[in-house]
Queue: 2 jobs
Job 1
Amino acid sequence: MKKLLFAGIENNYTTDISLALLRLFAGLSLALAHGKDKIPPSDGFVEHTASLGFPMPEFFAWAAGLSEFGGALLLAFGLFTRPAAFFVACTMFVAGFINHANDPYGAAEKAFLYLAIAMLYLVLGAGRFSLDSLFRRKLNI
């Protein structure tokens, strides 16, 4: 009972499965629900990016779209997880704190959730059940 109530994160099979399931669900959700329609960015998305005050709005619209689609897919499959998580986190930071700055919290909630998940993988890495782990074992890194 003590273990059930007070156990922390341990390097075990259950933790690795949980990390993999969250990574797959969050990465695929971000890529398919939010990222796929931003590649290539529409004129409206480029204009919206400009309205946020970004210089070179077409570049930053592409960066956001590639992060939300490509970065999220990399995150989902655990390939180049930490760099992918960094770019996803940067994009979600902008989405939550800049794009939704004047909106009620509910409008920014998804961006903050994706930001938190990206930060988790930035710190922890992908876990045992990932392409990063497979390549690390195969290449003896």
Job 2
Amino acid sequence: MSEYIEHRIKSKAENFFKGFFKVLIGGILLIILVFLFGYITMRLWNWLMPDLFGLGEIQYWQALGVLILAKILFGGFGNHKSNRSSRKRHKRCKTRYDNGFKKDFSNWKYYDKFWEDQGEKAFEEYVKQKQALDESE
């Protein structure tokens, strides 16, 4: 029993540190990408804008500020809601469809003939049964 507890604690610690390092590395990569994107924006601005529109050159932090301002004005911050629920719903409908829920249309050619022969009669009997139930209640 003690080996089992020791194994569980060890695996929980390993999973915690794996997750921690993934988040740490992801954060570092995100920061690097933000700085790189700011630098690229600064270079593009300084290459195009002074020649095209007669605007002055900008520094790195100004380029980063322009990116943040553009994000606020045009992109917003959104709710970042995942579409997990819609994916689950779609998957649920798809599995119902795949598990025999789909109709067999090979007998479709008999539908008109059935409705002519028995459909109207069966429907009238059904209506009579429902009316009898409604009257008895």
